[in-house]
Write a structure and sequence with these properties.
heterodimer; A: 4 domains; two-stranded antiparallel ribbon; elongated; disordered N terminus; B: alpha/beta; Rossmann fold; Arc Repressor Mutant, subunit A; Structural Genomics Hypothetical 15.5 Kd Protein In mrcA-pckA Intergenic Region, Chain A; eight-stranded mixed sheet; five-stranded mixed sheet; binds zinc ion
């Protein structure tokens, strides 16, 4: 992580959890220190406001919950009418042999609640299907719903209830659906619309050196390298060296940028020729960063696509703040061709004074662009007959503006698919692709096995077993599924292997698979809730026989 | 670390169907299972009554590993950890509660797992891995490391590789190693002398940021530079006889105040309490979910190795959870010049006009060696020794000498360091 970004996120983390930055952290900040360094106080507040529903209280559910209770989600509910069996107590760390016969939700909540006093846990012993009949609004009252190892038919009903329960995709409660069987698992999602406000991309912010802003250009031109003594010469920051070098090159090339490979190499040589001794550290850094002279500053394609999305072009007064910002960004980009400057300067070999001076130039420019961005925001507000006085109430204040600009390059909006809408052709083409690549992993094969196993369960009301009869029937279900998608001939070995393994597993929820999947479910839940980092788009298939994971696009 | 009473195991109660889920994998082979797999009672007997497994670390990964192993049916588990519980562990180390702060991790974790999973025996050792010798490590079938220290992993890896006796198959102890940072992590299986070892892959580690002393002393630019100044230069100057305790909030407060004053003087922004603590303790962000994934991956592989019910990972699993769920499974190749498991000497190209000091600097910068404060000798002749002080003083003049005065082209140098669990041999290649 770049040192400056690091400083930024930690500062942010400390600011609101314990107010001033100069005092020792309180107990809560100390307890959450290692996670605040990732998602900061904004992410933590989102977690603390979240209410999560788990449908069924098996080992994978409690393993997932453990990873959400520890970092301090607001509240959770386990919905499960079943009693704890001997087998449940044997494979679930949050059940105990003493609780056999008691309700599984109540026992699970009891042991999970011990992990964190500030989290509220509720056991609901009603049946999910009965509840879907009597009170479908129950499900839409949560921030996130996670269904683990429930009947495939119930998965569909639940997904439908969440879709019907919201008038727009944006308001739809996200759903994660998880199935496990022995060493295999799959995690699917149904999301309406999900916005990532900070992707935590690891690419450092652009300094726009290919077209330096006027003050930087002026500053660089004023540095006369020939007049410097050797100490000062060795402390000219690489940013200035690059701007100068590119500037003089353009002056002798009709103002053009270097385009061909030869031109770029020539430019790099010009830079090298400026050296006096050959081992100046600032020049070492400049040479390593030379690509910045000819890498055009562009708007990331994801952002460009996003700006022309309907939710941005068709802004409404009721739109969430992020879409106001994006509309403003699109107006800004029309004028400036760039995203607003982020004033984070990487460390570089130079003196303190020069560094501070340079940093101030970047900050001043960022400030100018921020004000320009606010003008655009004002226009966006007026477009929907809003007034500038409303900015604070709409979440468009100065602090939010600055935060948006800092993360603008990492903003993403996902449009989800509804659960169960995958077409047989999509599965077949994913399968063909993974067969052609011949490499690990083989998610489409395992996914097919899960579908066949669900078909089997639908027919017989039980999981397949490793018998010849069940194997033959599984193969038949898989063949029917894939033939519907255009598959011809015998099924590939990857699929028959997966079918054999899924029959062997008999729908078992083994502790290590539960723990691994529980970790992944919690990571995704945290991403959905905090709107930070990028969640899965599609279905993740976990194959712990091959120790691989793969994500299918549907 | 003597008189702490050790927890006792709870006897296994009668518990039909206890392993109903796990048994599906042990009662029948799958299409990918090795033909040597013996299904049913034989494999269960080995797993539940004979197999002895060692867990190194009872922290973020260790807590998860212990719980997983117990549930999978490993019944004789040993755990080593030298740390005590801190409040900042509670966001992920789920076997500990606020009342446990200050107690030894290994003991509290062992106690908790034994009470939650009756019939499991967890034997804790509150101390260092270096306290134990080969005869101790020889008793285990498998070792799982859930450590945050590179140095401890290197020691464990070198010890297990060194124990391999080709005449005695029992001396081969697979080592499973996990590590996490934020939303990312990795798990790997090391079969000593057969597959790539920990040392073989040292160059895959992220390079740690080291700030040059001259930057810290003369030209600070970042808040981190000011903090390093306070801890590396100011602390020893003001308290020459007192060792800094980074766990003591008073010490952090002092550093924070000094660093802030320096930052103010140089017009640098961004020194905070939290950053100060992060820099001096080299804090790595850590969350329960990532630890759960990596620990479960380690335990899945331990279970597969112990039972042969499915092929084990060959040999590296890397997870990146920041953008979707992305993972990459691959075979990391052995390095023939690995100082632990390879036979070939490492070449060290140097320039003739370099001084010995310049060579040492180049050596400490090598990502594939990672050595701090090395001592060097050539053919039994000491070139430079870091300790004891008399010898350091006697060999110090060599630091200024040119390499061409000290060694011949192709000479072999022996490198030792307290952080290096083995002696390293380098072949010097003198270039003009
Ligand atoms: Zn090796």
């Amino acid at each position: 992580m770049a040192a400056t970004a690091w400083a930024q996120s930690i500062e942010d983390a400390t600011v609101t959890v314990s107010s001033p930055t100069n005092v020792r952290p309180d107990d809560k900040t100390r307890r959450y220190d290692r996670q605040l360094r990732l998602w900061a106080s904004s992410g933590q507040s989102a977690l603390e406001a979240a209410r999560i529903l788990f449908v069924s209280g098996g080992a994978t559910s409690t393993s997932s919950l453990k990873n959400l209770v520890l970092p301090g989600i607001g509240a959770f509910t386990i919905l499960d009418p079943l009693p704890v069996t001997h087998a449940d107590a044997g494979n679930n760390f949050f059940l105990h042999i003493d609780g056999i016969g008691q309700n599984r939700a109540e026992e699970g909540v009891k042991h999970l609640a011990e992990l964190n006093d500030s989290v509220k846990g509720t056991a609901d012993t009603r049946d999910v299907n009965a509840l879907l009949d009597s009170d479908p609004e129950f499900f839409t009252s949560f921030t996130l719903v996670i269904a683990i190892n429930i009947e495939p038919a119930t998965e569909g009903r639940l997904a439908q209830a969440l879709r019907s329960g919201s008038s727009t995709p944006r308001e739809m409660v996200p759903l994660m659906i998880v199935r496990t069987a022995g060493f295999y698992a799959m995690i699917g999602t149904q999301i309406g619309e999900h916005t990532v406000v900070d992707a935590h991309a690891e690419t450092p912010p652009t300094l726009r050196l290919d077209s330096a802003f006027p003050a930087l250009l002026e500053y660089s031109r004023a540095v006369n390298l020939d007049a410097l003594d050797s100490t000062d010469f060795g402390h000219v920051p690489w940013v200035v060296l690059l701007v100068k070098t590119l500037d003089s090159w353009r002056q002798t090339h009709n103002g053009e940028m270097p385009k061909t490979y030869a031109e770029k190499q020539e430019l790099k040589k010009t830079l090298e020729k400026l050296r006096r001794r050959g081992d100046e550290e600032n020049f070492d850094e400049a040479v390593a960063q030379a690509y910045r002279m000819w890498t055009p500053t562009t708007i990331p394609s994801e952002i460009r696509e996003l700006l022309s999305d309907q939710s941005v072009t068709n802004l409404k007064h009721s739109s969430p703040s992020i879409f106001f910002f994006l509309r403003a960004l699109s107006l800004f980009v029309e004028q400036c061709r760039f995203l607003p400057l982020v004033p984070t300067l990487p460390d570089m070999h130079t003196t303190t004074d020069t560094y501070v001076e340079l940093q101030n130039l970047f900050r001043a420019q960022a400030e100018r662009e921020m004000l320009l961005f606010e003008d655009c925001l004002k226009v966006a507000l007026e477009e929907v007959r809003g007034s500038w006085e409303e900015r604070e109430t709409l979440g468009l204040g100065r602090t939010e503006v600055k935060e948006f600009i800092r993360n603008a390059a990492g903003v993403r909006v996902f449009k989800g698919k509804k659960w169960g809408s995958v077409q047989p052709q999509e599965i077949v083409s994913a399968l063909q692709m993974e067969l052609e690549s011949g490499m690990l992993p083989a998610p489409a094969a395992v996914y097919t096995a899960f579908l066949a196993s669900a078909d089997f369960h639908g027919q017989h009301g039980r999981h397949p077993r490793p018998t010849d009869a069940d194997n033959a029937e599984l193969l038949q279900f898989a063949t029917t599924r894939l033939t519907a998608g255009g598959w011809e001939g015998e099924l590939p070995e990857t699929v028959t292997t997966a079918l054999g393994e899924i029959a062997r597993a008999q729908g078992s929820d083994i502790p290590t698979t539960a723990a691994l999947v529980g970790g992944m479910v919690a990571q995704e839940a945290i991403k959905f809730i905090t709107r930070q980092y990028v969640p899965i788009a599609g279905t993740c298939v976990i194959d712990l026989i091959k120790s691989t994971t793969g994500t299918l696009p549907f | 670390m003597g008189d702490i009473s050790l927890p006792a195991p709870v006897p296994a109660p009668a518990w039909p169907d206890r392993f109903q889920h796990v048994d599906t994998l042990l009662d029948a082979p799958g299409p990918s299972t090795d033909p040597d797999f013996v299904r049913g009672d034989v494999v269960k007997e080995f797993l539940r009554n004979q197999c002895k497994i060692l867990v190194i670390g009872a922290g973020g990964l260790g807590c998860e590993i212990l719980a997983n192993l117990a549930l999978m049916g490993f019944a004789d588990i040993h755990v080593i950890d030298m740390d005590t519980i801190d409040i900042s562990n509670l966001n992920r180390q789920f076997l500990f509660r606020p009342k446990d702060v200050g107690k030894p991790k290994a003991i509290v974790a062992a106690e908790f797992v034994m009470s939650r999973v009756p019939g499991t025996k967890v034997t804790p050792y509150f101390g260092k891995i270096q306290d134990k010798d080969e005869s101790y490590y020889m008793q285990f079938n498998l070792v799982i490391c859930g450590l945050d220290s590179v140095e401890a992993r290197r020691w464990m890896n070198a010890t297990l590789v060194g124990m391999v006796d080709p005449e005695n198959p029992e001396s081969l102890k697979p080592m499973i190693d996990g590590g996490t940072e934020g939303f990312k992590g990795q798990a790997r299986v090391i079969i000593p002398t057969i597959s790539s070892c920990y040392e073989c892959s040292l160059d895959m580690l992220n390079k740690q940021t080291v700030f040059p002393i001259c930057t810290i002393a003369n030209t600070p630019r970042l808040p981190e530079h000011c903090i390093e100044w306070a801890s590396v230069l100011e602390w020893p100057r003001v308290f020459p006889d007192k060792k800094m305790d980074t766990d003591d909030p008073d010490d952090i407060q002092w550093l924070y105040e000094r660093a802030s004053a320096r930052a103010h003087e140089f017009k640098i922004e961004g020194v905070t309490w939290s950053l100060t603590q992060g820099v001096v303790k080299n804090i790595i962000p850590a969350i329960a979910s990532t630890n759960a994934i990596i620990a479960a991956s380690c335990c899945t592989e331990a279970f597969k190795l112990a039972t042969s019910c499915a092929p084990a990972l060959n040999n590296y699993f890397m997870l990146i959870g920041t953008e979707g769920i992305y993972s990459y499974t691959f075979e990391h190749e052995r390095r023939p010049e690995c100082p632990v498991c390879g036979g070939e000497t490492i070449d060290m190209p140097v320039k003739k006009e370099w001084t010995l000091e310049r060579l040492i600097e180049a050596l400490t910068e090598r990502q594939d060696i990672q050595v701090k404060k090395p001592s060097l000798s050539a053919g039994g002749r000491s070139l430079y020794l870091q300790a004891p002080p008399q010898l350091e003083k006697r060999t110090r003049p060599n630091l200024e000498k040119k390499l061409s005065e000290l060694v011949e082209d192709g000479d072999e140098l022996t490198v030792t360091a307290s952080s290096l669990p083995f002696n390293l041999t380098l072949r010097v290649l003198l270039k003009d």
